């Protein structure tokens, strides 16, 4: 299947929105003046917005990629240019048009002598054909499932711990991290689901840290060694982990550390807190810090799903609306397709992109990874993307929300009672 056939290399065209209601148009978020002087170093900003326990890597070059239409071509270019090794870790590797396209690129790399290792989650990829993976193995791709469903005998808790990370690292030179899986869900409208998501392309010292997460998971699951990766690591160490930009960035794979990074940055916000969350069932600490920020005059806005691939989660999320809205938090519901992004930006400076969802499974069970950065230019790009998305949303009005049907209130109340197990 050719790249042109699935249309992932084409540009998305802006859609006209005739008949937009006055309240929708008024829902656009205002831009603000920068909080920090442009002369403040990203290292100092990182120390202000990140907990001191987080190890910050300087000298990274980063590029924000929107949706599969931008992320897939960049990822395929990196795979096709690989010379030594490719490490791909993904929750979903689906045997559809996009999966076939990536599979062919990975197989071609393996056939020209590149060490290709792919780790996919068995539960996330359960709909894929077995012969699809067997064909890739036959062509030299070392592709393996994380915790196959046949391991049910090890207990339910073992199966609940899924690999939810999305990492692609190539030759120690470039890496990708975000919410995009290998599936037509992220292909452009007309070719797939056109799901809304974000990916960060990274060059510099943080690439090594992202690779290290992949290697640790692989070793934990299969006890394999990585000769090619160790050789590349020695070369990078000898070269002093060359700088590729000015972004200060931390790679967080501890669920608690990612959660703590959110709380710390929001508590230090001076102007704005903008959060895009695919699945939003916050704990008490997150609700409290969002409310407190809004009550002290910080602009706090949430971009959430109006419809989801897990419909009951939308009702569970709405159980938190009134508590947030009454504190001054603005809520925008994304209605065009499924919102799958897991991003946030504070004061246009601090930001995070990764796989971590603001709900219980990510916090308690899943293997996750997020990049957390402090950089005015990258922060501005993420903030502009967020504000642009809000123009395509319906803003939730508190009075109107209180008039919702009784059955919706009852469903929300029931799901709220079970929020810790959703």
Brief overview, please?
The protein has 17 helices and 15 strands. It starts with a helix and ends in a 5-residue tail after the last helix. The chain has helices at 3-6, 22-26, 42-49, 67-80, 97-111, 130-138, 156-160, 205-222, 227-238, 255-267, 284-295, 311-318, 321-325, 360-364, 376-390, 398-402, 406-417, and strands at residues 57-66, 85-90, 115-121, 142-146, 167-170, 174-178, 198-203, 247-252, 272-277, 299-305, 330-334, 342-346, 350-354, 370-374, 393-395.
Tell me what the structure shows.
There is one protein chain. With 422 residues, the chain is an alpha+beta fold. Helix content is 39%, strand content 20%. The protein is built from 17 helices and 15 strands. It has helices spanning 3-6, 22-26, 42-49, 67-80, 97-111, 130-138, 156-160, 205-222, 227-238, 255-267, 284-295, 311-318, 321-325, 360-364, 376-390, 398-402, 406-417; strands at residues 57-66, 85-90, 115-121, 142-146, 167-170, 174-178, 198-203, 247-252, 272-277, 299-305, 330-334, 342-346, 350-354, 370-374, 393-395. Strands 4-3-2-5-6-7-1-8-14-13-12-9-10-11-15 form a 15-stranded mixed β-sheet, with helices on both faces. The longest helix has 18 residues, at 205-222. The chain starts with a helix and ends in a 5-residue tail after the last helix. Residues 1-7 and 9-26 have low confidence and may be disordered.
């Amino acid at each position: 299947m050719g790249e042109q056939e699935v249309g992932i290399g084409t540009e998305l065209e802006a859609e006209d929105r005739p008949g937009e209601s006055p309240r929708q148009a008024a829902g656009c978020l205002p831009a603000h003046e920068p909080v920090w002087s442009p002369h403040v170093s990203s290292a100092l900003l990182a120390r202000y917005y990140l907990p001191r326990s987080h190890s910050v890597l300087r000298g990274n070059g980063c590029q924000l990629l929107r949706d599969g239409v931008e992320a897939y071509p960049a990822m395929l270019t990196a795979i096709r240019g690989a010379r030594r090794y490719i490490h791909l870790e993904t929750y979903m590797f689906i045997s559809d048009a996009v999966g076939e396209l990536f599979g062919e690129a990975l197989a071609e790399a393996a056939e020209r002598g590149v060490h290709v290792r792919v780790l996919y989650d068995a539960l996330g990829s359960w709909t894929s054909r077995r012969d699809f993976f067997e064909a890739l193995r036959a062509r030299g791709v070392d592709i393996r499932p994380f915790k196959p469903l046949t391991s049910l005998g090890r207990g339910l808790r073992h199966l609940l711990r899924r690999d939810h990370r999305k990492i692609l690292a190539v030759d120690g030179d470039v890496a990708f991290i975000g919410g995009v899986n290998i599936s037509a869900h992220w292909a452009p409208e007309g070719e797939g689901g056109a799901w809304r998501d974000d990916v960060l392309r990274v060059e510099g010292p943080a690439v090594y840290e992202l690779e290290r997460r992949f290697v640790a998971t692989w070793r934990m699951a299969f006890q394999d060694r990585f000769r090619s990766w160790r050789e590349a690591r020695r070369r990078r160490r000898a070269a002093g982990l060359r700088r590729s930009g000015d972004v200060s960035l931390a790679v967080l794979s501890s669920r608690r550390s990612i959660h703590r990074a959110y709380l710390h940055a929001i508590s230090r916000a001076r102007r704005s807190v903008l959060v895009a969350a695919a699945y939003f069932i916050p704990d008490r600490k997150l609700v409290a810090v969002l409310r407190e920020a809004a009550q002290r005059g910080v602009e706090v806005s949430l971009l959430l799903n109006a419809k989801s691939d897990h419909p009951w989660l939308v009702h569970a999320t709405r159980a938190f609306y009134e508590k947030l809205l009454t504190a001054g938090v603005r809520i925008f519901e994304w209605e065009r397709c499924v919102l799958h992004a897991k991003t946030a930006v504070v004061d246009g400076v601090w930001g995070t992109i990764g796989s971590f969802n603001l709900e219980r499974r990510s916090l308690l069970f899943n293997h996750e990874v997020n990049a957390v950065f402090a950089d005015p230019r990258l922060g501005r790009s993420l903030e502009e993307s967020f504000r642009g998305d809000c123009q395509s949303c319906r803003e939730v009005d508190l009075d109107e929300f209180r008039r919702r049907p009784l059955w919706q209130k009852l469903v929300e109340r029931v799901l709220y009672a079970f929020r810790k197990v959703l």
